[in-house]
Amino acid sequence: xxxxxxxxxxxxxxxxxxxxxxxxASQLSQREVALPALVAGEVRIRHTAIGVNFxxxxxxxxxxxxxxxxxxxxxxGAGVIDAVGPGVESLHPGQRVGYAGPPTGSYASVRNIxxxxxxxxxxxxxxxxxxxxxxxxITAHMLCSYVYPVKAGDTVLVHAAAGGxxxxxxxxxxxxxxxxxxxxxxxxxxxxAKKHGLxxxxxxxxxxxxxxxxxxxxxxxxxxxIDGIGGKTxxxxxxxxxxxxxxxxxxxxxxxxxxxxxxLLGPSRSVxxxxxxxxxxxxxxxxxxxxxxxxxxxxxxxxxxxxxxVLPLAQAAEAQRRLEAGExxxxxxxxx
Length: 336
Known about the structure:
Elements: E1 12-19, E2 28-35, E3 42-52, H1 54-61, E4 71-72, E5 76-84, E6 96-100, E7 110-114, E8 119-120, H2 127-147, E9 155-158, H3 164-175, E10 179-184, H4 187-195, E11 200-203, H5 209-216, E12 222-227, H6 231-237, E13 241-249, E14 272-274, H7 278-281, H8 285-300, E15 307-312, H9 316-324, E16 331-335
Parallel strand pairs: 9-10, 9-12, 10-11, 12-13, 13-14, 15-16
Antiparallel strand pairs: 1-2, 1-4, 3-5, 3-7, 3-16, 5-6, 6-8
Helix pairs in contact: 2-3, 2-8
C-alpha cells in the first residue's frame, strides 16, 4: 500500500466502460487500461459501488456533450482509497469515501480523482447507499433550500415520484414539513412512493394530472412543482402551480419542451420557472460539501435508499437500457 506521504508511481490497471461515439446503449464497451501515476492533489479510489443516473444517458447520447471522446461515463461512486498523491493530507489509504458530479469516470473498477471532489463517509452509512443517492441528495438539497426554500405547510408536486430522484425528493420535502403529491406510472409505483412518505399519488396514465392537482388542492394549486420529464409535461405542469409559485425544470426524459412563451408564465398565472443544474451548484466546493453533509444528515435522520437493481460493471449498457425505458423504481447500481 502506498504511504500517505509518498507519491504513487506504480502502474495500476482498471476496467472501464467507455463510449467512442454518441448513440444508444450499444455504444458502451469495456476496456482495461493502465491508470497513470497519481499527480499532486489526486487520490486513487477502488470502487465498491457505482451509481447510474439519467445524466449518464444524456452524456451517452450527446445531449450533454462531453469534453472529448472516447470518454468514461458515470458521475457517482463510493469505495476505498487505495493510494494518495503528493500534497494530499486530509485523506488516507483505506478510508471509505464517496463523490458525485463531474468529471465523468465512475464507470470503472478503479479511478484517479481530485481529492477535493472526495467526501469521507460516516461509519453508519453504507457504500451502496451513498452510490445510489449522493447526487440525488445534493440535488434535493439544492431544490429545496436554494431554488425554492420548502417550508412546513407547503404543497409540493414531484413528477416520477417512484424513481430514484423522486423517492429522495419525496422524503426530503416530507422531512421539511411539506405535503407531497406525486405522479407515478402504476399502482405498484404509487405504493412504493407512499411507503417513502408520499401523501397522494396521481396515476398519470389514467388521470389528467393537472385536473387531479386542482381537485387535491381545492383549486389553489401547489406551491412548488419539480419536473424532470420535460416535453409536454413541463408545459402542463405550469398549470398546476399557484400564483407566485415555482416550477423547477430539472430534466427532459421525454424530450425538450422547446422555446416557452412567456405568456404561459404570466401575467395571469404569475408563476416562476427555474432551470437549475446540480453540476453548476456543486461547481462551488463549499456548496458541494454542504450538499453532501446535508445528504448524510438526512440519511442519519431516517431517509432511506431504495436500490432496486445491482448489476456487474460489464452490464452497464443493460443498466442504462432499463433506466431509459422507465422499467425501474428506485436506483440502479453497478459493481466492479
